[in-house]
Amino acid sequence: MRDLAIPFEERLTPFVEGANWNAFREFSPNGRVPCLHDESTVIWDSLAIVEYLAERHPGVWPEESAPRVWARSAVSEMHSGFTELRECCPMNCGLRVELAAMSTTLMAEIARIDEIWAEGRSRFGGPYLSGPRFHAVDAFFAPIAFRVQTFSLPLSDSAGAYVEHLLQHPAMQLWYEAALAENWRETSHENEVAAAGTVLADYRA
Q1: Contact 36, 27 (CB under 8 A)
Q2: Of 6, 125, 149, 174, which has the highest C-beta tally within 10 A?
Q3: Are 63 and 136 in contact (CB under 8 A)?
C-alpha cells in the first residue's frame, strides 16, 4: 500500500503477554495480524488483503499474464509453506543471531526460497521478483529478507543480490526504522530468539 501510495492509517498494537489472541480479537476475527478495515469491511488474512486491494487498485500484480501467474503461485507457496523457517528463525528485524543449528528441513526450505528468487529475477528481468517493479510477491517475501539479514541465512549470489535490493526499498526502510524504534518487549518472542541461537547484536531502542 505504501509502494502504490494507497492511503491508509497504520495502527500498531503491541502483543499482550499471555492474552494476545483475545486482545487482537477486538479488531481481527482470527486474532491475528495483519487485518485491514475498509469502513465496514474487514479483511483479516494477508493473501485476502492483497486480492482485495488488487480488485480496487492497479499495480498490485504485474499486468502481463506470465509474471502475474508466476507471482500468484509464489505468493501462495509463501503463504502456506516454509513452516520450519518460520519456527526456527523468528521474525525480529533488530537482532543479529547466529543459529545454534540448521536442520535438513530448514536447509531445504532456504534452498527452495533461493530457487524461487533466482527464477523470478532470471525469467522476468529483475530487479524484483516479477519484473522491474515492486509487486505483491515482493511484499510477501519481505519478512524472509529480514530473516536473511537477522540470521545470515546462506543464499546464492542472485538471491543475495535480491535481498540487498529489497532491503533498500523505501517501504522496507521505514519498516526497519520503525522496528528498531520499538522499545517494548514480549517474553515469549524474546525466548523464541534465545532458543534459536546466540544473539550477536541488538540494534533495538
Answers
A1: no
A2: 149
A3: no
Largest CA distance in the chain: 46
CA–chain centroid gap for 45, Å, is: 13
Cα separation, 76 vs 125, in Å, equals 21
* All domains in the chain, ordered by first residue: 1-60 (no CATH), 65-202 (1.20.1050.10)
114-141 pLDDT, tens per residue?
A: 999 999 999 999 999 999 999 999 999 9
| Cα–Cα distance measured from residue 199 to residue 202, given in angstroms and rounded to the nearest whole number | 7
pLDDT over threshold 90, residue 20: no
Whole-number Å distance between alpha carbons of 136 and 47: 9
Helix or strand or coil: residue 92?
coil
Please state, in angstroms and rounded to a whole number, the distance separating the CA atoms of residues 137 and 151.
22
Query: Grid coordinates in use for 197?
Result: 541461537
Are 142 and 50 a contacting pair, CB within 8 Å?
A: no
Give the pTM: 0.95
Q: Rounded to whole angstroms, how far apart are CA atoms 83 and 104?
A: 13
